[in-house]
Structure to design on (275 residues):
């Protein structure tokens, strides 16, 4: 009787708990110095991980608890995925073409192969564990590569210059339309088959990774969103949805992701209690 009461309380606690969402950090920068150089009271020279607060605020706003992942070695990935309920793959720099056996394009930007290795391992481990995934901008590209796909390294070469995919306008200002497949998960979440998005990329999905299907396109044919095949929540968008979270349809992406992560957390708790 005491055990059953304790189990009931645990179920109630889990149902009220906010899901833990791992957010990747895809960018490393040299630490800024003060004025023209380092100061005596300042920190020693170092490299810092960088992640926009907008990702974290968007997840928190819809009920998730974001946890920023340091770019550790792939060996740390298993310990991470055992403890979190969902994974958000954030934006960042170009992916090293070596990750998909490509040759460097002359327009390739700066890359961080060690970060690529960590995030690729993270995406694959999340797949193996069945965790919900929301991938944004570079995150879409990385998820595609993690599943065996390739990238257009310099989009103007593949799609022309009809659409500006690296806008100069602020992140909260959408600049081009995308067409959304009517029967996909994305259309159901957005509640529309056409939406206007921001754009800050010069790479895009080319050959698709296994188990991924395109569900949104720019007018020039560029793939703007991918979904995982099946019932599990796997959704990747090429635009920076976290910068448009004040728009209901974009906020709905994060709500659906956090809801899926919460359901996964509850399912794991029920399995543990049943065992």
């Amino acid at each position: 009787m005491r055990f059953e009461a304790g189990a009931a309380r645990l179920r109630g606690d889990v149902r009220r708990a906010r899901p833990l969402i791992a957010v990747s950090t895809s960018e490393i920068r040299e630490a800024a110095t003060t004025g023209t150089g380092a100061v005596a009271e300042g920190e020693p020279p170092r490299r810092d991980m960088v992640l926009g607060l907008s990702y974290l605020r968007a997840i928190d706003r819809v009920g998730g608890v974001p946890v920023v992942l340091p770019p550790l070695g792939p060996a740390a990935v298993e310990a991470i995925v055992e403890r979190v309920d969902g994974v958000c793959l954030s934006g960042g720099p170009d992916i090293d073409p070596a990750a998909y056996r490509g040759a460097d394009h002359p327009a390739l930007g700066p890359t961080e192969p060690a970060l690529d290795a960590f995030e690729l391992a993270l995406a694959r481990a999340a797949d193996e564990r069945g965790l919900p995934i929301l991938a944004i901008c570079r995150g879409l590209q990385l998820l595609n590569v993690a599943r065996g796909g390739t990238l257009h390294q310099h989009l103007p070469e593949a799609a022309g210059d009809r659409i500006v995919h690296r806008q100069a306008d602020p992140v909260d200002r959408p600049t081009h339309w995308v067409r959304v497949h009517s029967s996909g998960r994305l259309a159901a979440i957005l509640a529309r088959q056409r939406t206007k998005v921001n754009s800050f990329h010069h790479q895009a999905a080319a050959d698709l990774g296994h188990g991924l299907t395109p569900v949104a396109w720019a007018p020039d044919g560029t793939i703007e969103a991918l979904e995982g095949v099946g019932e599990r929540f796997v959704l990747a968008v090429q635009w920076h949805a976290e910068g448009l979270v004040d728009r209901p349809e974009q906020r709905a992406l994060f709500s659906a992701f956090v809801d899926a992560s919460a359901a996964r957390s509850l399912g794991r708790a029920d399995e543990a209690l049943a065992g």
Residues 3-8 have pLDDT under 50 and may be disordered.
